[in-house]
Write a sequence for this structure.
């Protein structure tokens, strides 16, 4: 009787140790690549915002050229209802807070195509697609305007601050005056914080000052400015330039107020005859 020879193990199969080594290598490579992916994604988003900021400040300067040097108002609660004549919102009439905020009034200079100019965030694009909300478009542009110091805040019975520039010829140094900065506001559709708001406020004003340190959870403590790029914000200046501005530099009032820059006064506190900068505080009160 012939005995059957024992089955030989498959010499080509992986051992358990070898499989564990492969799993460890894959996990290590994943852990290393994830931060790189995040960094690349962040850089791509920043590039899009830089492009959007250039379009926005270009539109602001074009508006001034067409209006005898007058700068678009940062907030105009006296503006009459306006019919949109171009872009995806063509045919609708915006009024109240929607026309008071700058996006629709300045939108004429980029055909009211807000995606890629004032709307960059993918979640915000989704909300726009689902709801078609002109209110959201006006409330949450990626860049807030320095309205208290550039263009002015206007409401019934009150005009811009006396030290606010309303015409480009009044500007002492356009390359040192912030017109727009990346902004944020608390909003429930974004799990707490939306990457956009139509107004940013200066570090010093008649109403008070920014808090001592930047807070990730309290937008208003730093005038709704968003330091979303490694403690830096993108700022667009009145000469048409854009650059990243760090947390220490952006607290300098001379970058925000023309009189402070002209007098080289870091302690200057802009006066105010119009403290109503609301037109919606960003927290949902119905759309």
């Amino acid at each position: 009787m012939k005995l059957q020879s024992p089955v030989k193990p498959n010499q080509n199969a992986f051992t358990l140790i070898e499989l564990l080594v492969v799993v460890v290598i894959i996990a290590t490579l994943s852990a290393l690549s994830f931060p790189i992916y995040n960094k690349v994604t962040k850089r791509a988003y920043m590039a899009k915002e830089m492009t959007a900021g250039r379009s926005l400040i270009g539109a602001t300067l074009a508006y001034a050229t067409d209006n005898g040097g007058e700068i678009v108002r940062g907030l105009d609660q006296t503006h009459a209802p306006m019919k949109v004549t171009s872009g995806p919102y063509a045919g609708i009439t915006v009024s109240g807070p929607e026309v008071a905020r700058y996006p629709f009034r300045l939108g004429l200079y980029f055909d009211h195509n807000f995606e890629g100019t004032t709307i960059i965030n993918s979640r915000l694009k989704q909300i726009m697609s689902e709801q078609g909300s002109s209110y959201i478009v006006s409330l949450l542009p990626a860049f807030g305007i320095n309205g208290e110091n550039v263009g002015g805040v206007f409401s019934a019975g009150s005009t811009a601050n006396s030290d606010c520039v309303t015409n480009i010829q009044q500007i002492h140094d356009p390359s040192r005056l912030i017109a727009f900065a990346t902004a944020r506001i608390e909003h429930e559709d974004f799990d707490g914080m939306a990457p956009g708001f139509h107004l940013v406020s200066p570090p010093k004003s008649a109403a008070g000052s920014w808090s001592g340190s930047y807070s990730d959870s309290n937008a208003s403590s730093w005038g709704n400015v968003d330091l979303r790029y490694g403690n830096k914000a993108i700022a667009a200046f009145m000469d048409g330039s854009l650059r990243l501005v760090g947390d220490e530099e952006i607290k300098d009032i001379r970058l925000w107020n023309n009189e402070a820059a002209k007098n080289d006064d870091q302690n200057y506190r802009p006066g105010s005859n119009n403290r109503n900068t609301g037109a919606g505080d960003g927290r949902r009160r119905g759309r």
Remarks:
- The chain has a mean pLDDT of 86.
